[in-house]
Amino acid sequence: MMTITKLVIYGFGKHENVTIDLERGINVLYGPNEAGKTTIRQFILHTLFGFPQRGSSLLRYEPKTGGAYGGQVHVTDSEFGPCVIERIAGRSAGEVTVRFPDGREEGEETLGRLLRGYDRQSFESVFSFSLLQLQEIGRMNEEELGQALIASGTTGAEDLAGYKARLEKEMDGLFKKSGRVPEMNVLLNEMKEIEAEIGEHRKNSDAYAPMKERMAEIALRLNEIAEEESALTADQERLSILRQAAPLEIERRKTEEELQAIGDAPFPAEGIRRYEALKDRKIAADAAIRNLQERIAAVGKEMPEKPDAERLSKLRSALSDEAAWHEARSLETAAEHALRELTAMKDGLLARLGLADEETAALADTSIRKEEELHSLTEEHDRATRSLERLDERIAEKTAEAGRIADEQNKLEASGPDDGEIEWASKWPTLKKRLVAAAAKQNTGHSDSRQPILILAGLAALIIAMAIFSENWLFAAAGVAAGAASVYLLLRQGDGNDGLTEEERLILSQYGGREEELDRRAERVRRHFIELDRLIEAEERIRSEVGELNTSWKSAAAVLDDTEERLGTFLEGYGITGRLPAAIMPELFRLVRELQETLRRIRSEEEKRDRAIRTAGAIRNGAHELIGHPVPDHLLFPGLKEAEMYLLRTGEKRDRLLEEQNRLSDELAEAESLKTTLESEINTLFATAAAEGEQAYYEAAGKASRKTELVEMIGRIGEQLTRIGAPGKAAAPDIEQISLRIKENRESLQAIAEERTGLIKRQAELKAQMGHLVADTAYDALLQEFEEKKAAFRELSVKWAARKAAVSAISGATGRLKEQKLPDVIDRASGWFRELTGGVHAALVLNVDGLIESEGASGMRFGLNELSQATKEQAYISMRLSLAASLLDSAPFPIIMDDPFVHFDRARLGNMINLLEELKIHHQFLYFTCHKEMAGAFSEAAVISVAGAGSERGVLR
Amino acid sequence: MTIRFIHAADLHLGSPFKGFAGLPGKISETVRESTFTAFRNLIDYAAGARPDFLLIAGDIYDGEDRSLRAQEQFRQGMETLSEVGVPVFVSHGNHDHLSGSWVRFSLPENVHVFGPEVETAELTVRGTNVRIHGFSYPERHVTEPVIGHYPQADSDAVEIGMLHGSIRGDEAHDVYAPFTKDELLGKGYDYWALGHIHKRQVLHKQPPIVYPGSLQGLHRKESGVKGFYDVTIRQGTPSLEFIPAGALVFGEAEVDCSGIRHADEWLDRCMDQIRAFREANGPGLIDLLLFGIDEQSEAMFSDAPESEWLEFIREAASNDFPDIGVHRMTWEREAAPSVPGGLMRDVLDEIGSWDMDGWKSRLSDLYGHRQAYKFTGRLDEESIREIRKEAERLLTDGLMKGGRAE
């Protein structure tokens, strides 16, 4: 026995954190409407059998407020002991844990075993029922009610029954044994039709073999026809030939007769043409012979004498001198030319030398030695000339210098000082001495009398420098004097003279302080005289030098005269007179030499010319002799050549004519031989034709020609006959007969052609038919369709069979149930039903149709639908409880009831309570009710109040 | 000494596809032409590669259903190979056995068709003798072993055996000309060109014993890339290259549905998988396997019946991938709803308690129907498994979803 000891709801529907303790035996869970009684009942079922799938018809009772979903059901089981089944959110069915006191935690599998393999549906159909289910029974028809009653104790059989009905309906839709409309019956009919069609096709195919045979026959017959036709055609051809050949045959016979008449007519082949050709050639040969004879005579006349060979050889020899001739002539001309040039050159040279003739010059000595002599003479003459020129220059120079000095002297005298000055100057030095002495006395020691002395010394130095510079020795002397004076003054400086005299005072007053100025005036005078002295001296020196130079000039002029004298003598030796400048002497000497050379060449050229004239003369004479008369020189060799040419031509012509003569003779001989041959051939021809002379020959020819013609005609006819294919010689043909046979043959051929057309047409038809059969895919398609239908049929068969099996199984199982279990269940239920109804209803019985009926106390039977609502419910509850009792061993579950007793009257309710109290030993009962009195109805029951609001914590007893 | 040849088998030309229903129009067309397309691919390849010869180990046609067109297509293919000078060796199998009454098309000279008894065709390839042994099925069923009639190898030549049949003890297939691997190896051949089994497999490597598989998948269970082998035997050493030829590939695309809330997310994932399939295999037919279905995606899927979801995907796929057909959708739920106790379990136990007869009697309305039985397929263990699974799904699903209201 399994007892639920406690429910712990974490969150389920409206309940949250609710704990309910339950007792063994009867538990009454009381609460007003909407208190959450049904929710608690669902909580138990959900927790045991899993939360329903989302989307299933059952509510899942997930808390609307969110929070935990699920809870625990605490159970004590006679077999498994105490355990806690917890189911919380997880997979859609929820996560299950079964906990045992020893700490084991198991899952769905253990729960399954704990629930003895029962699923919710099976459980509900026996152990959990509501008023609603009882009320539903009232609306069912009798049969279904009965089924449901059975089912109610046999786990969901009411569904099974419905399902079975559905399957049976489906089966009927698929197949009925003798139906026409169900799918498979339709298919069967279709297949039958296809089978018939396939049979049809097979039959068509069977026709193929006869067709094939017929085709073979036709082919055979066509062959025969072809043979017949070709035989007829051949005959037709033969006949047509015969008809064509008939006229020819007749002509042949005629011709053969004429030929016989002519008989044998000998004549050489091509006799006429050959004869006439021979004749023509003979005439031609005669003409040729005559012509040749005439030509031989003409050649003989034309033939020249044989030419003179000796003269020819002389001519050739003379001709060979042509080169020598021309050479001599050109030598002569060249020499003349050279002579003319040389003579001109000689005259030129003579003119340049100024000679009247060349006699002297030609013999003069022009050796090197002479040239050397001339050379030295010339040089000597040059030297003398140059010496004289130099003296002239120097004399002119000196004369000019003397002039210049004289000028200078005059100029100096004109600018010189006057006489008073000159006199003062001569006194100044004395005065000065006195002045100085006076100054010195006056200023002993202090006056700087040195200054004038130093100036004097500087002046002296200047003068000396000027003298040195101008080489004026008067200046130099003055300088020295000045120097000496300054030295003297310097030396005297020491003696100061302070004791002045009056004179001295006068001097000092007159001249004192003016010393420098006075010195300069004295000095100017002095320099004038020095300059004058120098000029006079230079004049004298130049005069003496000019005198010396004049003496030298005279001696030089004498030398020059002497050398000119000697040169003139030298030139006279060469025939040159008169004085000539020495510079051209060498040129003269060279011209003389050139003249001598020219004269020598003139002589040589004259010799050459003479030699050439001699040679040409000899050649000319020889030529004139050979030509036979004198000719101008320019025609000399052409004349010789002409003579030679003439001789040669004559020779050639003679040779040619001789050759021509020989050739013509040969031809003549040939022509004569030909003529003889032709004559003999003509005779042979005559002999062959057995003719005496030309006339007879021509007659023979006529006969032979006719014979040939006839033979040819026969041949031609023969050929024609052969060509049209006539047989050999035949009897005279019968044209009418032939035409008749041709007509017959044509008719036969016509008939054959018609037959063949028919056969070919038939053949084509057959071929098309056979081709169609052979290529027909309809048969394959049909087979395929048939197979597809078969497959479809088979699939449907399985479908049907599966339904049939399912239906059979359901019937079988329910049947067996009815047979084995139901009687016990009904017996027990029957007893309880009787108790509940207080004996009003004696029993529940199963009638023959498998329906449950109620048997009244009077033995009257009622269908369940005939019972009152409450009684029906009592019957139902009895059945359920009986079932539960019968399953006690295999399924000792609590029985959960949802207010099923509301329609019961007090008496029957009392009976019911008594029954439950009896049964509570074997089952725990959870009784949910909204009727307060029910809470106190049981004598021994745990009463649990389910709070109205439902969400309070805890539910108390 | 190098020999190169192509080994193909199980062409099933003109065979319809089995087990597909409701294919969209364009795909349907492709599907119908697929065996021909695959065959043309084979011929084009052979005409291009010009091997020394081509072996076809049975089942060129699908049987009684063979159409004239199929035969004509085959003949044309052979003509093509004749033009390029590739000899073809054909042994007919159980589907195209010799005693059929159909019209025979004359095949070109290059095609050698083996007779009903084991015989040997010889040819010389560049100086090497090649001996090919084989036979054609004289009738629909050859249940006796034929391997005993094959001659022992002659040491000089390259020896090839063609055999259309199944290995002994293979229960999955009806027994045809059964043999064992040792028997084949015992012949000392250089290559065994097998046919009949549509799944490609190499039974033995040296010497090779090979099923090339069907040229084109013909049933939704024949998934994966199909084709033929291009075989080269060089100095006695064989090398095999598999050449895909199928016009369509049947396959499965798995779509992870975890964490999906909105249909467009799911559509994107489906399209991604379809695209991946398309890129890997080319045109094809797909089963979409939905896995990782969690509460969220389950909640989304529960908005509409499964058939509508399939329709939704098909529509979307036909826009983006006109050559991909979504054939079906399988829902692989992570956790099946827990089976409730009580009556529900009784019901499911009831289904589980039925034996074969139990099933048959319960389903006889359909499976025993005089017309329908031909098309239902046999009620074997597999189909019962399928039906049972579906029935259980109906029960758990239907009842769980229809939970009662309070």
Task: Write up what this structure looks like.
The complex is a heterodimer of chains A (957) and B (406). Chain A is of the alpha/beta class. Among the domains of chain A are: 1-118 and 892-957, P-loop containing nucleotide triphosphate hydrolases (Rossmann fold); 211-267 and 710-770; 323-364 and 577-627; 398-542, no CATH class. Helix content of chain A is 70%, strand content 8%. Chain A is built from 27 helices and 14 strands. In chain A, strand 12 (895-898), helix 26 (906-919) and strand 13 (925-929) form a beta-alpha-beta unit. In chain A, helix 8 runs antiparallel to helix 22 and helix 16 (473-492) packs antiparallel against helix 18 (515-572). Chain A is flat and about 235 Å long. Chain A starts with a strand and ends in a 12-residue tail after the last strand. Residues 138-146, 151-157 and 948-957 of chain A have low confidence and may be disordered. Chain B is an alpha/beta fold and 406 residues long. Helices cover 33% and strands 24% of the residues of chain B. In chain B, a hairpin with a 2-residue loop joins strand 11 (227-234) and strand 12. Classes of the chains: A alpha/beta (957), B alpha/beta (406). Chains A and B meet through helix 3, helix 6, helix 7, helix 8 and helix 22 of A and helix 1, helix 2, helix 7, helix 8 and helix 10 of B.
Helix- and strand-based class of chain B?
Answer: alpha/beta
What is the CATH fold-level name of the largest domain in chain B?
Answer: Purple Acid Phosphatase, chain A, domain 2
The coarse overall form of chain A would be flat
| Low-pLDDT segments, ≥5 res of chain B | 402-406
Q: How are the strands of the largest sheet of chain A arranged? A: 2-1-4-5-6-7
Mean residue pLDDT of chain A: 81
Radius of gyration of chain A: 98 Å
Strand content of chain A: 5-15%
Strand proportion of chain B, as a percent range, falls in 15-25%
Mean pLDDT of chain B: 84
The end-to-end span of chain A amounts to: 24 Å
Instruction: Count the DSSP helices of chain A.
Output: 27
CATH class (first level) name of the largest domain in chain B: Alpha Beta
Helix content of chain B: 25-40%
Top-tier CATH class of the domain at 1-118 and 892-957 in chain A = Alpha Beta
Organism (chain A): Bhargavaea changchunensis
Coiled coil (chain A): 374-408, 588-615, 654-681
Domain YhaN AAA (chain A): 2-202
Protein name (chain A): AAA family ATPase
